[in-house]
Design brief:
single chain; alpha/beta; 7-stranded mixed sheet; 3-stranded mixed sheet
C-alpha cells in the first residue's frame, strides 16, 4: 500500500462525505455487494474549481472501480479489502497522468474545433476527426480557417446548425441551459435511464480460474474497441490490476495527444473490420475474450456483422458498452463527446455563470469521460464476479449524458479550497520509457490493501502490436 495514502488514512474523513454520496449511487448502479462501500476511505484536501463537485465525482468513480477489484478475490461473499482513494490524485488523473521529459505532446484540439457564437447563442464544433471536420465545413460552406468558420457560424441559429452538422455526419452541440435540457426530449430520456443498464445472458460454464489476491485480473483478457476517451480510461484501469488488454483500432486512426496517457499497460493492434478476413480475426479474438469494451453507437455492431455473433461465439462474455447521449430517446445513437455533452446538458452554461465569464465554460477536466470510464471498469469487474458465481454473461450500458445527470443533480461543491499544485512527490519513481520518450507518471489514485496497482508496459503507439492474445 502506498505510504503517502496510508499515512493520511487516520485524518478526519470530513472531505469524503460528498465522495461517499457519489460512491453509494455508483455502487448501487454497479450492483456491488451491500455494505462494501464502508471499506472505502477518502483522503486528500481541496477540489478542482468548478460549478459542480468534480473532485468528489472523480474520487467516487475511482473508488467504485477499485472496490470492485478489492471484492473479487473473495467472490463478493466474504468482504472486501480496504480501499483508500486520494481525492487530489484522482483529480489529477482526470486531467492527464503523464508528464513528458524532453518532448512535448501535440495539441489536443484540431485548429477548427471550439466554441463559436451563432446568431442566437453558442455552439461547439468537434472537428478532431477529419471526417467530422469535413462535415462541418461542408454545411458551413467555409474554408478550413478559424475566421472563415467564425463568420459562417454567425449566420446560423445554433440549434439549426447543430441539426445540419449532425445530419451531415459531423459532431456539434448548441449550448443549452440546464432547464432547457431537462425539458428536451433527450434530456428527459437520459434522466429516466438507470446509471447503468444491465442485461444478463444465458449461462455458460462457470469460470473456475483461481484469482490471485495480489493481481486479481491476471489472466483476464479484455478486447478494447474503444477510442476517445471513456473506454480507454476503463481498460487502462483494468490493465493496472493485471488484465491482458488488447486494443483494436482501424487503419489510419491515431490519437497523438491522448495515446501516451491511455495506452500504457496495453497492447495496441489494428484491424480493418470492413474486410471479411480481418472481421473474422476479430471474431477469433472474441472467442477467447473475457471482457469486451466498446463505444460503437447502437446498431453499429450489427452493421459490422458482429451483433449476436459476439455472445454466440463467447458465452459468458462481459460486454460493456458506451454511448454519448443515452440509449433511449430521439438522440440515442447520436455522435457525441464529453465536451459536446457538457454543452447540451447545461454544464458549460452553468460554468459560464459560476465563473462570471461571457462564453461557454466547461468543467476543468473531461470528467464525464473519466468518471464514466471508471464506472465501466467497475461494471466489467462485477460482471466477471457474476460469471464466476453463476456462469452467466452480461451486458452493461452506460452513457455520458447519464453521468452528466448524476453530477448536475449533486449540485455545487461546498469546498472552495483549491488543490495543491502538482509536485515531484505526486509521481512514481523513475521515468516511463514511452514510445515518444521518457516521462513521469502519476502515482495511482487508489491503494488496495495487499493489491498493488501497476502497469507492466509503457505507453505505446496505436497499431504497434499484432492482433493476438498473450500466450
Amino acid at each position: 500500500m502506498d505510504d503517502d495514502l496510508e499515512l493520511d488514512r487516520a485524518a478526519p474523513n470530513r472531505r469524503g462525505a460528498a465522495s461517499h454520496r457519489f460512491l453509494d449511487d455508483i455502487w448501487r448502479a454497479v450492483r456491488g455487494p451491500d455494505g462494501a462501500t464502508t471499506r472505502v476511505t477518502f483522503v486528500g484536501e481541496g477540489t478542482l474549481p468548478s460549478a459542480f463537485a468534480v473532485t468528489d465525482l472523480a474520487a467516487a468513480s475511482v473508488a467504485a472501480a477499485a472496490l470492485a477489484v478489492a471484492c473479487l478475490p473473495n467472490g463478493y461473499a466474504s468482504g472486501c479489502a480496504p480501499v483508500i482513494v486520494d481525492r487530489r490524485l484522482a483529480s489529477f488523473w482526470f486531467g492527464f497522468s503523464l508528464k513528458p521529459h524532453g518532448w512535448t505532446l501535440p495539441p489536443v484540439w484540431d485548429p477548427i474545433a471550439g466554441d463559436y457564437l451563432a446568431a442566437d447563442g453558442w455552439i461547439r464544433l468537434h472537428t478532431n476527426a477529419p471526417h467530422h471536420g469535413a462535415a462541418a465545413l461542408t454545411v458551413l460552406g467555409a474554408s478550413a480557417e478559424k475566421e472563415a468558420v467564425r463568420v459562417a457560424v454567425g449566420r446560423w441559429k445554433a440549434e439549426t446548425l447543430e441539426t445540419a452538422i449532425v445530419a451531415q455526419g459531423g459532431c456539434a452541440a448548441a449550448m443549452r441551459h440546464a432547464a432547457a435540457w431537462a425539458e428536451h426530449p433527450q434530456g428527459k430520456a437520459a434522466a429516466a435511464e438507470p446509471l447503468i443498464w444491465w442485461r444478463t445472458h444465458e449461462a455458460a460454464a462457470r469460470d473456475v480460474r483461481e484469482v490471485d489476491p495480489a493481481r486479481p485480473l491476471a489472466g483476464v483478457r479484455v478486447l478494447d474497441l474503444t477510442r476517445v476517451l471513456a473506454g480507454p480510461v476503463a481498460t487502462r484501469f483494468l490493465a493496472g490490476f493485471g488484465a491482458d488488454v488488447l486494443r483494436i483500432d482501424p487503419p489510419g486512426w491515431d490519437e497523438p495527444s491522448l495515446a501516451p496517457d491511455v495506452t500504457f499497460g496495453k497492447r495496441c493492434a489494428r484491424l480493418d473490420l470492413r474486410k471479411q478476413d480481418e472481421r473474422e480475426r476479430l471474431l477469433e479474438l472474441l472467442q477467447d475474450a473475457d471482457i469486451l469494451v466498446h463505444g460503437y453507437r447502437p446498431g453499429a455492431m450489427e452493421r459490422l456483422g458482429l451483433g449476436e455473433d459476439v455472445r454466440r461465439l463467447r458465452h459468458g462474455l462481459v460486454d460493456v458498452s458506451l454511448d454519448a447521449y443515452g440509449w433511449t430517446g430521439p438522440w440515442a445513437g447520436r455522435r457525441g463527446y464529453d465536451s459536446l455533452v457538457q454543452m447540451s446538458t447545461g454544464i458549460a452554461e452553468a460554468g459560464m455563470r459560476w465563473f462570471g465569464k461571457d462564453r461557454p465554460t466547461p468543467l476543468p477536466v473531461q470528467a464525464l469521460d473519466h468518471a464514466t470510464g471508471y464506472m465501466m471498469a467497475a461494471a466489467a469487474v462485477v460482471g466477471l464476479a457474476r460469471r464466476r458465481a453463476e456462469g452467466a454473461g452480461s451486458t452493461a450500458l452506460v452513457s455520458l449524458a447519464r453521468t452528466a445527470d448524476l453530477l448536475m443533480k449533486a449540485g455545487a461543491d461546498g469546498d472552495v479550497q483549491p488543490l495543491a499544485e502538482q509536485c515531484e512527490a505526486d509521481f512514481q519513481v523513475g521515468h516511463e520509457a514511452t514510445a515518444w520518450g521518457p516521462a513521469l507518471r502519476l502515482k495511482p489514485p487508489t491503494s488496495l490493501e495487499g493489491v498493488p496497482m501497476f502497469w507492466p508496459h509503457p505507453a505505446t503507439q496505436l497499431g504497434s502490436s499484432t492482433p493476438t492474445w498473450q500466450a
